Amino acid sequence: MMQVEWWYWIIAGFCLIGLELIVPSFTIIWFGLGALVVGGLKGLWPEFSLAGQLFLWTVSSISFTVMWFKYLKPKANRTHAGQSKEGVVGETGIIIRGTVDSYGRGTVRFRIAVLGADEWGCYADEALEVGDSVRVIDIEGQILKVIKI
C-alpha cells in the first residue's frame, strides 16, 4: 500500500498555490489550500487513510472554490471598465474644483479611476466646495450628478 506522508501534501499544496502565479485562473489556489488542509490533518493523524485523504482534498478544494465564487468574488469584482451607469453610481470622491452655486460645474476626483478617468465633471443640487466628500447618484453624458456626504 502506498504511504503518503503529510509533507507530500504540504509540498503539493505550495506547488499548486505557486502554479497560480503562472496560470491566471485563480482556481488552482483552492486546490492548493485543500492540499494544505489534508497535509495538516495527516500530520495530526498519521493513520489517515489514502482514500480519506483524497476524499478530504476533493471536498475541501470544492468547498474553497464554491466559497470563492459565492462570497468573495462578487465583492472583489469592482472594475468598472466597460460598464455604464451602474459602474459609477455609488462611487465616492472628493471635490477638487468647487461650484459657485448649484448650477455650476465642479470637478470630482476619485481614489481609483472610474471608467478610465480619476477626475470627472460634476454638479449637485447644492453648492460644492473644494474638499467636500461626494457620492455619485447619477450620470448624464459626461457629467456626474453628486450629493454631499
Can you give a write-up of this model?
With 149 residues, the protein is of the alpha+beta class. It is built from four helices and five strands, in the order ααααβββββ. The protein has helices at residues 6-19, 28-44, 50-76, 85-88; strands at 92-97, 106-114, 117-123, 133-140, 143-148. It has a five-stranded mixed β-barrel. A hairpin with a 2-residue loop joins β4 (133-140) and β5 (143-148). α2 crosses α3. The longest helix has 27 residues, at 50-76. The protein is rod-shaped and about 80 Å long. It starts with 5 loop residues before the first helix and ends with a strand.
Features:
42% helix; alpha+beta; rod-shaped; 5-stranded mixed barrel; 149 residues
What can be said about this structure in brief?
With 149 residues, the chain is an alpha+beta fold.
What's the tally of helices? 4
Measured between the Cα atoms of the first and last residue, the distance is 67 Å
Shape: rod-shaped
Q: Per DSSP, what share of the residues sits in E-state strands of 2 or more residues?
A: 15-25%
- Helix/strand class: alpha+beta
Provide the spatial order of strands within the biggest beta sheet. Answer: 1-2-3-5-4
Tally of DSSP β-strands: 5
The whole-number mean of residue pLDDT values reads: 84
Order of helices and strands: HHHHEEEEE
Low-confidence stretches: 76-80
Helix content: 40-55%
Radius of gyration: 25 Å
Largest sheet: 5 strands, mixed, barrel
